Amino acid sequence: MDNTSVGERKRKASGSSSMNNGTFVWARDGNHEGAKKHAAYLLQTSDVPSSQLIAENDGDEYQHVYVRWCSTGTISRIRKDNISTEELSSRRCRRAAAAATTQQAPKSKSRRLSLSKKQRQHWRDQQQKDRRNTQDRGKTYGQDDQDQKRHKSSNENKPNSMEHDVINIDDSDTDDAGEEKKEDDVTIRQIEPIYPLPCDPLVQEETKTQLKQQQDKKTDHGVTQSSKPTCNPLVQEGNVSIEMKPQLQQQEEAQELNDTIQSNPKSALPCNPLAQQEEGVSIETKPQVQQQHATARHSFTPRSSAYVQHLAEACHIIMSDARWRTLKQSGNSSREVSLFNWEEGDDLSAVKAFMSLYDDATNEEAEKQTNIEDDIIFERSMNLYSRIYHRKGPWLDLADLYLRYYAPKVSDNTEMETETTNSSFSNHQAALQSLFVDIVRLESMGLVRSFESEYECGTVAGQVTTSQSGGGGMKRGVVLSAEERREVLRMLGGGKSPKAAATTQSDCTNEVLAQMQSQKTLLSAFSATKSKATSLLPVRKHVDKVLLRKLASKVVSLSKSRKGQVYAPKKAEVDNALKMIESEWNDATTDSSMQQSQRSVLSTIRLREAPLKTLRRLMRLFLCAGGGPGSMRSDGTNGWRSCLVEGDWHKVEYPGLNSRFGLEAYPLQKYFVAEPGHTSITRVFETLNEFTLFEIGAELRSSIDQAIEAYETEKMIRRRKEKSSTFTDTSQPDVVSAVDVFHLLTKDGRFNLVRKIFSCLDNPNNELELLTICRKIENDVQQLNTIRDSMNEHESLILTTSIVCRWMLQFRIVNSFSSSLSARPWLRHLSLDAILTYITWDAVPFLEKRDLYVMASSSLMTILFGAEVQSFYFGGPDALSNQFQYNQYAQYLLPRRNRGKAIERLLIDLTHAHRKSQREKSSKTTPLDLSPIQGFCRLLLGNTAISCSIPFSSIRNLARRLKAPLIKTMDGISNDEMQLLHIRLDNVSSSDEIESCTGYRDWTPETDVAVANAISNDRDESSKRCAFVGWESNDNDNRPETTRSLNVEELALELYHSARLPNTNDKDSKDNVSNEPRGNWEGWHNEGGHARKLFRIMFLQAVLESTPVDDPTIFLTPYQHSPHDLHVGYQKIASDDCNKFSLIHGFYERRRNSVEAFLSKLSQQTDQSVGDLVYVSVKARWDSHANDESRMKDVPLLRDVAELRTLSMIAAGLGGQALSSMFRALAFDYRHYSGGLPDLLLARARCPPTDTIGDSKDNHFVDLGEWIGEAFCKDCIEEENLNRSISMLADRDDDFLGCSKNVDSGHNKFSSKKKRQKISVIPSFPNKLQLLHNENLVEVDCMFVEVKSANDRLDARQEDWLNIIDMCGAARVCKFGSKKQSK
Predict the structure, then answer these.
(1) What is the model's pLDDT at position 99?
(2) Are 829 and 631 a contacting pair, CB within 8 Å?
């Protein structure tokens, strides 16, 4: 037999006996733009195989060389100028040095012997016995004992066939890319390798040589100790030397430990991102192991994985923090319990397991593990569980798990033995053993399971899903592919040819289950009973056979393949791999508690439902609590998910996971203070029933969100079909199916839900009230049934759910069950009443579309005032006012902006209902009497203006209905918002002019008028934005290039830069504008993004640091972008008689002294001081990080640093007074004023004349590229030209604190979110901006501009912002019209 190894034969076949010959260089893999550099070896022509030599062409102007790529081992012919001559980075220098050392170091080969199974078992027993004897003798050995031990190790611990090559795992899954980057970012200083070698292929040869030289120096009786180096994950994660023993003894124990690991398959664990663990620890006691964990906390182990730790942190906080403990009533007494407990039927197996793995906690769960080896397997198996938890699932096969998390990395220089048949798979034995041990461990803990019956196996094996986005409705199997399903059908006796199966297969038809039910076994034919179990054809053994052969094929393919090559396995090799898989599975289940009937290989597993449901419920609570009151709807990625049905939990974005990957930063994390134990503090849920009600509300919220998304998706597909006759399914979104969780479309389902809610109340046995509510619900549903034929299933579910929620909300408002919400209104996102309110509010547009204006008005009366009105009387001016009822508790359920919108919708719906009723009673020519509507409007305006329960923009909209000047309408009405924010009611103060006005009028901003002609478009695309003709740019203009087609904001930027705007022919502004320099404005279209960013940088941190957090429920989790009370605006709560008012506990009111003190100081600062304040604030956050590695995870900080000088310039240009007014508005009601800011922010810098009599011609503008740099430099401008169309229209939700841009605009399911990316380069911290340029003083001008097209008008909130900014700054409106309109 040829003793040449497989690796050597492959190298000889490729034409070289060494993979590392030649000079180590970095070279590009091509000549195209953006070609990346890779590590390679520069070869001589003599080293290249003759079959790969290419004849030189005399006419070729380039010189070519041959290189061998380090990543693939393939030889390529490239141009000589592709070799990099630039200075290498520190990382590449280290790799080059390692490669040079590897070439010089001789390779050591270890001889392996084959042992029988009996010899291997005897060897394991002997090693365990020696290990126990070593522990009994203690840590300190005499010299004689050391000599005996070395002698025994040299004679007995010889390499054998049980040595497993442990190789790095290549995790190619896209979900794990973030963690791999994170692990690669950490550099651990290597001190002295006292343990077996790391798995880094670039430094392994060098370390191997050094260790061999050290071991050769220490011999015993002339016998040299040397062994094959083994990959030790502990050393791979950090070679930390522990000075607890002499160096000689450390090396001896490392040698013994190496042999022990090689002889014990359960401890021979692979070195991969999933299974990196602390094995082979030479310290025997548990406290010492924990101490080593603390000293090497930066190392990456299964315990420290980001997937494990973010789940462990959430479990620890919810289960251990005193905020999340509650009271449970038991008779006349109550006791404190956790929200999740075994007594309530919650399976806490997974939750308790993750709690024990939390690094920052000292809990009792971690002390239960006493065996070090058992700890390693437990941590690794929970890491596997965490990976499966984040997968789509629910069913996963072994081949998929093995390829993603356990399979050894395909390497060019992997040495494979050929002495026996199974030796070719030796490098996969340890990985398979680890996989099987982990699965057996999870199964023994009750966390995973396989198929429980043949019926379930057939249902899952034959299940097919259809995806519209894949192009033509691609069908995808849940577990089996199409070829594998045909193979199972063939084994069942119903197989067809591939062509026939492809043509006859229908959509989503379970052919496997159909075959099982149609064909009977021989036993069932003679059976007297015809039960369902006996009539099904067994299929599980066929599914196991197909999936195990799939796993075996993958093992063979990986063991025979190299990078860039795919090996087609042979049948004999697959059979041998199957035997190895079965053998490894039997070894893994030998000591397990699995029953004999369950000893067969579990080819398919899923997370067991009960522990998974509890874990998801806990994570939903954690995510919803951290989202705050600014996130009370599902956006596709947050925690408003159903735990009762299998949903898209794999799409959820976990803030703890993103934070550990460096994708998101949470600078307010320091304000979260854990409250361990049973501290007597304010609880989030006072009783366990309140938490149960929240979970009911969360399920309703998830159901209504899915129904709305499904409805909007169907409407989009229908509209696309109507627009285009050449419609195809390939461009359509996936059809979303909504699940009626509580069966609300049936009468019994509605009754059961009401009863379930009543069971959590203080009077659960009140049958009379329950029947009354159910009767009212059925009456509205009966009215809805009259038009149900014209509705689809999703719309019917939305309206039926809203009816149930509306009447349950009415009942709870009248009884005022939740008194804690009045004291802590920032917790409305965890209140059932607020959830019911939002569901009812979201269903109002659907009622209006169906002309159900009376039902819509009744729903609005409930959520606004808590009034139960089923019909409206329009018989006089005060008819509606007399029906008005007011409930104090209803004021806490909606934020101010939503309440303002709801009142406006109420008046509109009442008008439609009044018109509809009058049309039915009288002729169409009778004019509509609007006096009842106006009288009710006047009543609402007075009450809401005094209490500030709605924004001033909504008050202005109500005043428009009265058709009188705003200043006249507000006469005698006090409004705190108008006074604090200095909102003006009119441009003139002359009473005569106001009295002569007969219609509505209020304050109007200065308006610039321009002409713009839209580019005609042949297609009828009403949803597309209008495009306008732009101006030609100058050749010397260092600004972003403009194209012929511009949107309206881009056109305005061009006009202000070229001095065509502002207008100079306005009578009111002629004197002011003509004396100022014109043009040269640079701007951004970000709708107030810089203002919100300055609010976060300058204001929020300063106010939070000056005001202590007096309520622990403001920061419920470490991952909050804002304090929860920031989304509670300034508001007064009126008593039931509307005569007395009390202030609600919002952000501004609770911190009023600190806010006003900061704003007063800010308004008195000079322009230079304001710019310096921005610099100091960002610098303080920069210095708060320990190192650059920590700063890399703070993406908002890196963005702030990248434009720090620009932000300082903007702050100096706006000035302290303007910033003070804007910050006060944001603090007054951030939920409302975070939007509506003007479209454009324009800025310019100029050097004013030195004398006082100079005019505008003496001003000369400063080149911002020279003075500021950053985005104004030429390189950034060229980059902006490439991405300008994207950046102008991009929505930056990260500028909003604790909410999204369209938080109050309903559902926005189809606006795709950009995937967050880590910033790979840390920007250098810039110098402080000085208002000097070339020794001349610089003045910065800033101006806000709201741009409107010809058929667009200002929103009331935009008018308020222009009003506020114009008091101390510059704010204008740019109105575009066509040439026809101007004529």
Answers:
(1) 66
(2) yes
Question: Do 263 and 123 meet the contact criterion of CB atoms below 8 Å apart?
Answer: yes
Q: How far is the first Cα of the chain from the last one, in angstroms, to the nearest whole number? A: 99
What secondary structure does DSSP assign to 493-528, as a single string?
T----HHHHHHHPPTT--HHHHHHHHS--HHHHT-S
Per residue in 838-893, pLDDT (tens digit) is 999 999 999 999 999 999 999 999 999 999 988 888 877 788 888 778 888 899 99
pLDDT level of residue 920 (50, 70, 90 thresholds)? confident
Report if pTM > 0.85: no
Handedness of CA 385, 387, 393, 396 (dihedral sign): negative
449 φ/ψ angles, rounded to the nearest 5 degrees: -155, 165
Contact 439, 605 (CB under 8 A): yes
* Burial class, 714, CB count within 10 angstroms (exposed 0-12 / middle 13-18 / buried 19+): middle
Distance CA 1152, CA 1175 (A): 26
Burial of 577: CB neighbours in 10 Å, binned 0-12, 13-18, 19+? buried
Q: Which residues contact 286 (CB under 8 A, 6 or more apart)?
A: 369, 370, 372
Supply the DSSP symbol for 335: E
Where does 320-431 show beta strands of DSSP type E?
325-330, 333-338, 396-397
Q: Which of 330, 339, 434, 337 is nearest to 379 (CA)?
A: 434
Cα–Cα nearest to 180, from 191, 189, 171, 167:
171
Residue 1369 has pLDDT above 70, yes or no: yes
The letter for the amino acid at 797 is L
- DSSP β-bridge partners for residue 1373: 1007, 1346
Continuous segment of H or E residues that includes residue 1150: helix 1147-1150
Listed residue (282, 316, 283, 278) closest to 300, CA to CA = 278
DSSP state string for 271-323? -STTT----S-S--SHHHHHHHHHHTTTS--TTT-HHHHHHHHHHHHHHH-GG
CA gap 838, 894 in Å, rounded: 8
Asked if residues 1042 and 1030 have their Cβ atoms less than 8 Å apart, the reply is yes
Taking the C-alpha atoms of 980, 985, 987 and 990 in order, what is their torsion angle to the nearest 10 degrees? -110
For 592: left if phi > 0, alpha if psi spans -120 to 50, otherwise beta; the answer is beta
